[in-house]
Amino acid sequence: MSNAYKLTVNGTTTFDVNEAQLSQLDAISTAPNNYHILKDSKPFKAATTQTNFLAKEYTVTVNNNTYTVNIANALDELIVAMGFEIGAAKQVNDIKAPIPGLILEINVTVGQEVQENDNLLVLEAMKMENTFQSPRAGVIKSIAVSKGDAVDKGQLLIEFE
């Protein structure tokens, strides 16, 4: 893997940068998260205003213009190309009944904010109680069943926003 990076600015403009190009910048820290930069003899005043290290996303102000910058290295690009994007498994937007059964409890309401692993409802099937937990953090958009309802396999139970 090389030391090249793909920068995406404001989700629209993408360009590649390598370490040689970065070394051509003359940057001096003037205060924490503030910099004075010379590029091709032109001065720039820059500041990092927000950082999300895990998402590799930074909000940067350059000469009073604010930009959101995402940084991806070669490994990140390879992961996307292979279809293994981080967090893709957490994009569950609905809960469906895996087997026929009877709704015993509903522990959430429409509009309620839930966290991953919060108890959503209890489904009785084959004389066993099955507790459904939230697969992700989110807000409950709709509840398609009521306590005491009989449900079929594949029937929509809960939908997330």
From TrEMBL:
UniProt keyword list: Biotin
Keyword Hydrolase among UniProt keywords: no
InterPro entries according to UniProt: Biotin_Carboxyl_Carrier/Decarb (IPR050709), Biotin_lipoyl (IPR000089), Single_hybrid_motif (IPR011053)
PROSITE patterns: BIOTINYL_LIPOYL
Signal peptide: none
Xref: Pfam families: Biotin_lipoyl
Taxonomy, superkingdom: Bacteria
Domain Lipoyl-binding: 83-161
PANTHER family: OXALOACETATE DECARBOXYLASE ALPHA CHAIN
Protein name as catalogued: Acetyl-CoA carboxylase biotin carboxyl carrier protein subunit
